[in-house]
Amino acid sequence: MSSDSPAPLMQSPPVSTGSVHDRALPADSASASKTAPGAASNSIVQVVSDYVSLTKPGILSLLLATTLAGMMVAAEGFPPIALVLWTLLGGVLSAGGANALNCYIDRDLDKLMARTKNRPSASGRIAPRQVLVFGIALTVISFFILAIFANFLAAGLALLGAFYYVVVYSYYLKRRTPQNIVIGGAAGAMPPVVGWAAVTGSLSVAPILMFALIYYWTPPHFWALALLKKGDYGRADVPMLPNVAGETETRRQIILYTLLMVAVSMLLMPFGLGEIYFVSALVLNAIFLILSFQLYRTGSKHFARLTFFYSLW
After folding, report:
1. Residue 70 near residue 191 (C-beta atoms within 8 A)
2. Is residue 110 within 8 Å of 103, Cβ to Cβ?
3. What is the model's pTM?
């Protein structure tokens, strides 16, 4: 019957026998209810993905490798598997927590930079308070895991590294000095020391040299990236070396720190690392030096990119 037809006389209105929730849903509502579980699932996946991204997984893989290297050198072989797993878990949580707190502190800068503007902390997908709580929670859990399943020295060193990265580098140095990466590099150099301490419960010359190796690796690695992202750092007003001292001086500093890194890597030879380490160090260092000199000579973005990605290996 069309809507223009008069209603029949004496027709009683329909009687509802149930609540509004029992009535048939419109087609679009029914369709929405069917797709809601999938949408909710996608939402949960996105939230989990955002929280994981706050920990900077790409960086964590490097920290895991250097932590395990410190453990293996200390044990002169492979340590007990349970100790390895607990130490790596504690290290991941400590570094992940520090990275999340870095995202919390840097959220204003990250909004201005193309490579970081989509971070959940910068885009607003995760509220600042939640980022802060997440970072602190991971750091605290990490301390207890390392203290219980490794030892207090390893736990304290991991906590010191996290504090240095968050407070000394992220909060203070990054916005104030072009030497931010040089001084702040101490935080990223802590994992092999933590690994050594987890195995031995003490420190010695070898873990200090491993610390120095990563410490001198850090400036060439980050300054190569800074040469590629000079515009980003300029927009965010971060005093990275290329923006303050110029690209030529930055390339010169990359060579200097690469040479220091090579020298320290050779100082590790007396600690029983063997011929495989010696040959590998010679070859890998030679390639790093060639790329650094080519970058200095040509000043090209191509060699800056090659140097940066090679430094990740």
Report:
1. yes
2. yes
3. 0.83
